[in-house]
Every structure is written in C-alpha cells, then in structure tokens.
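Extended Data, panel c. Modelled sequence:
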Amino acid sequence: MHRFAAFLLSFVILCGSALSPVSAEDKTLTIFAAASMKNALDDIDAAFTAKTGVKVNASYAASSTLAKQIEQGAPADIFVSADTDWMDYAVGKKNINESTRVNLLGNSIVLIAPKDSKIDTVTIGPGFDLAKLAGDGKIATGDVKSVPVGKYAKAALEKLGAWSAAEQKFAMAESVRAALTLVARGEAAIGIVYSTDAKVEPGVKVIGTFPADSHPPIIYPVAATSTAKPEANAYLDYLRSSVAKAVLEKYGFTYLIRPTS
C-alpha cells in the first residue's frame, strides 16, 4: 500500500511538471545583427541575460543577408542593420514592427593594412590614388552591390575620384568581418572597413580615415520584427539604456540617441 502511495505521488509530481506553464520555461530571443556589431553586442547580450534571465541567441552577417533571411521566414525577434537601406527593405516586406524602429548608432569607415605592412599613414581626400597604394595587391571590402560597408566604400571612392582606377583590384567579401580577415591574414594589401572593426582586430592597422562627407551617413537602425516575442521590447529598452551606451561607445560606435534609462 505504501509503495502504491509513493508511486501515485511520483506520478502526480511528474504530471505537474509536464503541465507547467510555458512562462516557467527559459525565455530566448534571437537577434539578427550586422557583422560589425558582434563584439559589442556579445557583451550587451551577456549583461542583458544576467539582468533579465532572458537568453539571447545572436546571428551575425551582412545586413543584406539577414534582411533576406528574415524575409524568407527566419525566426528573428530583433534586426540591427548597418544601414537604413536594408532596414527600409525589411519594412517594405512587412517584416518589421516599424513603430519600434530607432536609428541607434553611427560609425565611420577607415582604410586598413596588415599590421606589419610597410604602408604608412595616408591622407584620404580628392584625387586620392587608392589603386597605386594597393600596388599588385588586392583591396578588400564588403560587396559594393549589397553589403553596407561596401556601398559606403564605393560611394566615398566615387566622390573622391578613386573608384574607376581601383575597381578591378577589389576583393568583394560577404561581410565586413570577412574583409577584415582577408587583410589581417595578408591576403589583401589594404581594406576598407568600419573603424569599430579595425579597433577589435590586432592583425591590422588603420592607415587613413575617410572624410565623413565623402559618403552617406553611416547609421545603424534597430527594430523588432513583426513576429517578435514580447521580450523583444525589454531588449530594445536595454539597447536604449545608459549601460548599453557605455558598452557601444567603448567599442567605438557613436550613440545617436539620448538614453532612456
């Protein structure tokens, strides 16, 4: 009889745990973010999880790739783009909750070379001869047709009169981090990346900074997707906090809004 009572009690406990509400389960958010955000967002995500208990899975790639993955039904809760064009694209496809959109960050683009390169600091301005600077080597950046850093780079070089001579020397990478790696490994003589990327890669050195007026403003918008979980609002609030601002500025981003907390 005692054995039956013990069995019955165990059965009740087991059933109770199996029927526990979803709210008791671990909550998880999926963040799709521009590749250049990786180091800063990894820190922010860890702090957010420590504060809220909500786990964060982050997927980093070119903004163009992420926007198209979201369009194809990838289960993302938050999208952080490295330009406004791809956020506009996602909005146009009805994949974004537009009321949550905020232009959060700014950045700059720089010219880099491998750390042991003999190329010294150069002044980037009208008449800048990028092709000559590269010599027989390749110039790495993101795909100029789709990847934001590549689009910014091409716009700057066209304005400075350096694009046509240098175009054939470009090695188009799938993301800014891929371009950064090509230069760090010495597989490209020089590269054009965000200043924040150069800051976290010890294998490269900055040899020049592109004038801010040589390309469209570099803006990182962030928004919840149209299928986002309720916890996405807390994450967006955290990105707008003074704590997140401090982290992002530590990595070299320009914080474009006034913190809300």
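Residues 1-24 have pLDDT under 50 and may be disordered. This feature is highlighted in the accompanying rendering.
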